[in-house]
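2.7 Reproducibility. Because tokenized structures are sensitive to small changes in the input, we list the exact sequence used for MFS transporter, including any N-terminal residues retained from the expression construct. No trimming or masking was applied before prediction.
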Amino acid sequence: MSAGELIQPKAAADADTPRQWGLLLLLLIANSTMLAVYMGVGSVLLPTQIASIDPAHKVTILGIIGGVSAIFATAFNPIAGALSDRSGKRNPWILGGAFVSCAGLVFLGTVRTALLLGIGWCLVQATMNTYQAAVTAIVPDRVPLARRGTASALVGLALPIGGTLGVLIATRTADSLSTGYLILGVMVSAAAALLSFHFRDVPRQQTAPEVSRQDKIAAFLSALAHHDFRWAFIGRALLVLGYFSVVGYQLYILDDHIALPKGMQPTDAMAILTPVSMVAMAVSTIVGGLLSDRWNRRKVFVGVSAALAGLVTVIPVISPTWPGMLVFSILNGLAFGCFMAVDTALVTMVLPNAEDAARDMGVLNIANAGPQIIAPFVASAIVTTMGGYSSLFLAGGVLALLGALAILPIRGVR
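Resulting structure tokens (single pass, no recycling of outputs):
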């Protein structure tokens, strides 16, 4: 029996009520502020701070800090998800993760060395992924199967909304980094409080029998033994690896590779490219999610969008210009938005067990965080030894195309 079938009866009762839509709205806010932190810090504040500390070695330092911090993200997401499942509660993990992250962001605004910067960002990654694991589990907990595509599309708007907001805040506070970090920390804390205080934890039945500690450890990654879940994991991991290999270095790409119009600074370009990409992402998120529900098709949307994400990476290689980056950003936004919205719906339909929803979604989130361990190191090596940013774009494209192929073996979802 699938996870959706197990939780369907309870969730269906509230499928179209104002309260259900209120929950989705607060989930949108919670995810938007989370992604504002990830995008604002990761794309602008962190690279800017590194460049001011050691401009000569900025590519290498960003790769090391990005890779090491992603290890913390990868570890804490499934661990926090499993603990959240075991406790039967989501809100304490949401609130705790957000408040400690806020403290970590404030700390980042005070440091002046690469070592302390790395330590602070590792703390934020760990606590934000604790927050993320609990928030992510609310959809399979409380949203009916028939509305997963719509719910995922609405929640998926968090990426364009949060990404745009985070980058705009970061670019406007690039000359006062401590202010930018503080604003982002307060935002995510406020969102966590709103969600937790308006939607109290729903008691969750623990139907699974007690097992030994050894069996629990063995079962931790057991979802990957499930055929469809495993291929969904692989497809997500490849697409995310390709995407973040490029996006993680966008500020440096604009500084060192793209011919910007006279007088335009890289942070100014980021402030334009990000909203353009995110608007495209928002459109494809809504359209992809709604059409996947209407046609009851997930794989075709996920596969085609991943393939498009791979193909468009040739544009900045052929045309390393400002117009070329604008076209790339629009098409890449369309592709990535549709993929993430519909793929999230697809994944909730191949979860092996509802009782382990947060744990298994946490395992899947390794496909989000895990590639970010590899991406900074790989991207840094490609840029410094294999021909610069053109080679980086092409490598990201190949990975996205492989991600599209990985969707084909999934059997349980059309």
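Residues 18-53 form the longest helix (36 residues).
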